[in-house]
Amino acid sequence: MIGCFPDPYPDELLYSVCARFHDRVQYPNKKNTMRELFGDEAAIATVGLPSNLQTLVSMLPPGSPYTVERLINNHTLYPFYAPFLDCEQARQLWADMEGARGPSIYMRSGIMASTIQPMEWLRFCPVCAQEDKELLGEYYWHRIHQLPGIEVCPEHNVRVLDSKIRIQNPQTRHEFVSADRGTQLPRSRSYKLFNSHQAVLLRIAQDAAWLLKHQPLIPGLDILAKRYRELLAERDLATYSGRVRVSELLNQFCECYSPELLKYLQCQIDVESQHNWLFRLVRSPKGSQHPLRHLLLMQFLGHTAESFFKLPQQFKPFGKGPWLCLNKAADHFRKPVITECELAYSKEHGKPIGTFSCSCGFVYSRTGPDESEEDTLRITKIRAFGSVWEDALKTLWYDSSVSLREIARQLGVDAATIKLHAAALELEFPRPGKRQTTRMSRTLARPLEVEPGVSEASLHRYRREWLTARQVYPEAGRTALKKQFQRVYTWLYRNDREWLEAHLPPRMAKSPPPVRVDWEHRDIELADAARQAAIQLQTRPGKPTQITIAAVGRQLGQLALIQRHLDKLPVTAQVLSELVETREAFALRRIQWVVECYREEGICPQRWQLVRRAGLRPEIEGLPVVQKALDEAVESLKIMPLQYDRDRSPQRLAF
What we know:
four-stranded antiparallel sheet, 47% helix, mainly alpha, TniQ
């Protein structure tokens, strides 16, 4: 039984706790420590995902608060990897750590198969180390600092430094090395990470710290991929039915993260491959990916790890429900009484379509997703009106004091729809009222030639419905009427074809065949126009606009053409690649514009004012070429020309 096992510190690795125990007991042979802790002198001192934890817990005194669950969740790297594993894979990894299957852990977690190499050295934050020494009297290894991709301490925003303890060292694989023995603070007190990507690295560290502090959330790879596609759909990078627009996704992702940063994080993307890690994340999962890549994608989609994992597991573009009934004729109009929403996706644009069916018989659909409260009152299409609505129509139809327009207003439709449904319900034409028209009566007063086996009432009803449709939609052609009034058209075609042919709209003239596009000629014209558009964007007064493919396309009014058919426009593509501004070049142009503005205003700003007005992001501001331009701009603005007042001698403006 272990009698003096140290109490773990906050966020301390179990490896670090065992190392402090080893320093306390001072066994002459390091294998004695392994035997006492894990019952096996050949056990390996694993840093991130240790095994034999059930044996370790059994060695602790009875009543010890340290259970396997507490050790895994609070003092190993399991909570960092588990959320991005398959549910069964995460369960097996837990069982391996609890038992003695150490060699299979790194295979199970996907670390061995990942192209992201594990850390070579144990690492520490110098500020954390100083605080630990002052408060606790000793150093210890923090979990957060041992994760791949963590270059910044999320608590102090300073560089994470390498210790002198190598993780993969055959000589120390059976020995726990404490932070007191491996930490050496640098002489320099400047720990800031002067890196243009520090903001991104800090957010990654903060997300990783959040994952470590929470119980492992294991939604499963299918749920993760589904959430990614839903968030991509909100940015128009995928359809809501799940089809990802991979080209647009790749372009925007590479604009968000520079190749230098992705290489620094070992997350380079092979843009020529359709199976690169980014595409595998958003498609149906066939294996786990390194958590660092998931965190990069979450950042790109505008989420932190916390906000991403708190998203609902089931996509509900129209909310939870119950939903409102929008039947104006019902006494429960605009009340949440609908409990079922049938979800489908449009074949045309992939957006979700919700169909809401009420007990009153009213069925309507809406194209989503809902983005505001006003959207819940919107109807895209009424699919069925129901008995309550039809009874209200019958009542209002025979009320001579109510006009046709008023009926339409009260029932929430237009007058043409009222006429069509009145005909379908075989209501009296013309409707009773002070101003009765005999137009419909005259239309239907012609003698009817009754076909054998067809009742005069049916013939009269179907002819009346067809004439009403022709009157309501006078501009509709044959195909449109046939499609919209298929029931009436089919009956008349079978039973009264001669009359139907006489009352069809005239045939429309065939449109001429489409003219084939001369892509070569269009390419040359568009390339010249792109050059002119870039000049116009550069010389346009006011705040500068970055010269991008999208900006040039919008300036030309040909953005859709360029986005969809750039492969057919090689000259234009070459011109655009030459015209597009890098982020550095655009930053320099913004600095130049801000300098001119301050000169016209006669103001000598401070450096931070110039940076803010130019709208420079931290990662751009940190670039050497931008730093040099800022220094020159500040110096040039310090030498202000003399300002002359009309009635006074020349004097320099005071600041």
